[in-house]
Design brief:
This protein is an alpha/beta fold. It has helices spanning 40-47, 90-101, 109-114, 130-141, 160-175, 187-193, 211-218, 223-238, and strands at 2-11, 14-24, 28-33, 55-60, 63-64, 75-78, 148-152, 179-183, 196-201, 204-210. The longest helix is centred in the last third of the chain and has 16 residues, at 160-175.
Length: 239
């Protein structure tokens, strides 16, 4: 589905990505994990075409992306913080995104109902809580049934019931053959949904493999403990 090769990106003197290779396959959830400023968000934005890499290439279904933005129509995106005009309602935003995409995709009524969004879709965003806005963001990410879904901290701010609903939706989309990229600091939740782990630190992939391979390599029983095990020797070399 998505393949990144030799991706490099600098902002001024700061090297954010330093030769990233990554494959994201259909029918799987790839978790991109790492501490703050490790390059996760920049990599997502390059895949989305919002930031241009300084070097390397990205292919989408085997086709190199050379400035053609048409592939974005096949991507659903849930940013960590979505920013829309405060006077719009959730329904307004859905209509706006449909118009921008140029087609009228059916709304995912099952997800809207399971996230209990019906009563709030006609309220202006300015009066909604952060958790309610996050539930609307989740519905927007799945609005167009994209082949690739990029979810940045998707359960942040959600109550346990809504978080469980969203994780169930992620599993169903994976089982339907879609490719998903999830970034999150809540490693216990990634333990439930991730098939593959890419661990970034200082703009470099230090591990890329299945969840089972990571647990086996570190001798740990959970993703949280495995990540801590990976970072221990790195923290010693930089201290």
């Amino acid at each position: 589905m998505i393949a990144a090769r030799g991706i490099r990106k600098r902002f001024g003197r700061l090297t954010v990505l330093n030769g990233i290779d990554l494959n994201v396959a259909r029918g799987s959830v790839t978790a991109i994990v790492g501490p703050n400023a490790s390059g996760k968000t920049t990599l997502n934005r390059i895949i989305l075409g919002l930031v241009r890499a300084d070097a390397g290439e990205i292919t989408f279904d085997g086709k190199r992306l050379d400035g053609d933005a048409a592939y974005r129509a096949r991507i659903g995106y849930m940013p960590q913080v979505a920013r829309f005009p405060e006077n719009l309602t959730g329904r307004d935003v859905m209509t706006l995104l449909r118009d921008i995409r140029g087609h009228h995709a059916p709304r995912d009524e099952e997800l809207v109902e399971s996230l209990l969004l019906g009563p709030v879709l006609d309220s202006q965003l300015r009066v909604l809580s952060g958790g309610t806005r996050q539930r609307i963001n989740a519905a927007l990410a799945f609005l167009f049934s994209g082949d690739l879904l990029i979810l940045d901290e998707p359960t942040a701010g959600l109550d346990p019931i809504s978080a469980g609903t969203l994780k169930d939706k992620i599993r169903r989309e994976r089982d339907a053959g879609r490719a998903l990229i999830v970034t999150s600091h809540v490693l216990s939740e990634l333990d439930e949904i991730a098939d593959r782990i890419a661990f970034l630190l200082d703009g470099v992939v230090h591990f890329d493999g299945s969840r089972e391979d990571l647990l086996r390599a570190t001798g740990e029983s959970t993703l949280e403990r495995a990540m801590a095990s990976l970072m221990r020797p790195m923290s010693r070399t930089t201290s």
